[in-house]
Amino acid sequence: MSVRRRDSGSVPGGADDASGAERALDAAARPRVGRSLVGAVVAMVILVALVVILVLRSPATGPPAVRALLLLATGVVSAIIVTGTRRLTHLAAAATAERDEALRQVKLLGDVARELNSTLDPRRVLATAVRLAAEIASPPGSLPRRANYCLVSGDSVRVEAEFDAHGDYIGATWPLSEHPLLARAVRERTPTSGVLDPATLGPRVRQLAGEQQVGHGAWVPVTVNGELHGVLAVAGRNRPVSEQEIARCVAIGRMLEMALENALAHEHTQHAAHSDPLTALSNRRGLEQEVADRRGRRPLTVLAIDIDNLKGVNDAYGHGAGDRLLLHVAAAISATSRAGDVVARIGGDEFISVLFDANREDGVRVAERILADLAHPFDCRFAPRVSIGVTDASTDEDLATLIRRADAAMYQAKRTGGMGYSVAGQDRAGGWTTSATDADRPS
Length: 443
What we know:
The protein is an alpha+beta fold. The protein has helices at about 15-55, 65-115, 120-135, 180-190, 205-210, 245-275, 285-295, 310-315, 320-335, 360-375, 400-415, and strands at about 145-155, 155-165, 175, 190-195, 215-225, 225-235, 300-305, 340-345, 350-355, 385-390, 420-425, 430-440.
């Protein structure tokens, strides 16, 4: 599968869009302030001109009434000038604040586009989206709102990502029917907002809303490849989410859809490249990657497990029967391995199990459990049979060396009749030998 990577330039609100919007907002703000300034100056000039005319047309020795009238007119003009100046200052400050907030929102949308497109990890994409949604839906100077991303499966809702300085509810679940507003967004596939009325909420959602002290919210459905993936939610503690804030969350939701599409496609491609399509276990490449990521200097034990006579089963009963046998053996190995161990199918009939922080005795116990689990026939026509090689490692041995040594021990088990295990051991001269042990064979 090819991965389509959209950069921020192709996403609304990207870096190029942000700089262009800043210039547009700046150009729009300047005429508004300019018109207010010109109007105030013209009014002041007219008033001052009137006062001057009155003064010039009145003799200095005029009646006291005229002089009083001139003084009154001068005072009125001065008051008007002061009031107009204050009004002008207020208008200029309001216009500047409006422009600054609009520029902040444009910058945040640009940040959303850049950050969402900077990773192909779906978990990081969601974490980034909820953090920026909480910030972009918050009034300037206030604490960020609470935001989360919910996965919806049937009637079940699960919080997959969250941004909230007052708690951590990742992993919280509840029935979809307990949250009518969220259910409406899912059902209608349209953004929804409203008041979280405790009387309409189910017990689990009512409890969560009370713990988080939220009373309002907005919910934006997110669709990937034509299917609902989840819902981006923003909650308000003290006041409703405004229409402008909802519109910004919708914009984030649309960018999130594109980023998730890229990330999920990449994840699918990576999984396909590192897993076996039949058993869904890791393949050789996936095994090497997992061991390299996790090993460090930890001791390892490796089991090489090979199905005895898989070709004979394919020839006698068909490849469908052979596939069922492979799946049965894969399930038995996975079920009997320890938590944290890695199981892989690296060949047609061969599996590898890597045990971390384990010694040879641990490997023998796992081998015995695998053989015991496979001792019972799963098909009336044939019973599964495997040969197992066990080896442990010093901290400086690479995985390829361990697999070769486990393979040699596994072939020793085959030579003794199969359906058993063989352990590679170090002799006194420093070389490696194998010793075979037959497990109880099914009658």
